[in-house]
Write a structure and sequence with these properties.
The protein is an alpha+beta fold. It has nine helices and four strands, in the order H-H-H-H-H-E-E-E-H-H-E-H-H.
Length: 175
């Protein structure tokens, strides 16, 4: 773009996401696009138009975006796991009252927590109740903070890789 395409100094969502797709690392652009989809600030027809307007080198990887990611942290971790070709599913209903952010393999649950939604005493207690219920059924639960994913990723990544190499995420659940 050589000139600003209008008189409004604030770009619209489509222009913002187009710029992000072309200028940011793919995962960061995916975080923004998935967030817009999840918040209904972007709809499927608009996503298709956005992707169609991108050069193939941006369009192809971003065609994996989903609308169910409930946080940028969740998107970042899922894309990292998918990049390693590890089986990961998002927003999986494991128990009648328990949906998890990510299910890795057969039994590893990764929850991506933020202070906004997980620091309140009632939510903290509910998270621990859910963790205990999942553990009693054979799931391993790991909670990651925003800081661990975005500020301390090198350490977090090595720890997660160690856990993946032990292949504990591929254990059969008890009957």
């Amino acid at each position: 773009m050589r000139a600003w395409p209008g008189t409004d100094p604030v770009p619209g969502i489509m222009q913002t996401l187009d710029h992000a797709a072309r200028c940011l690392p793919t995962v960061k652009a995916a975080i923004l696009i998935e967030s817009a989809l999840n918040k209904s600030a972007l709809h499927r027809p608009e996503l298709e138009a956005l992707l169609a307007g991108l050069p193939e080198r941006f369009r192809t990887p971003l065609s994996r975006v989903r609308s169910d990611a409930q946080s940028g942290t969740e998107t970042a971790v899922r894309w990292w796991l998918e990049g390693l070709r590890v089986r990961v599913r998002s927003q999986v209903q494991l128990l009648p009252d328990t949906r998890v952010d990510l299910l890795v393999g057969t039994n590893w649950v990764i929850e991506c927590d933020s202070r906004e939604f997980h620091d309140a005493p009632d939510q903290y207690r509910e998270d621990r109740r859910r963790d205990l219920a999942l553990a009693s059924r054979g799931y391993r639960v790991t909670r990651l903070t925003w800081e661990q994913v975005f500020l301390e990723w090198a350490v977090t990544e090595q720890t997660l890789l160690t856990m993946l190499h032990r292949r504990e995420h591929r254990r059969a659940l008890p009957a």
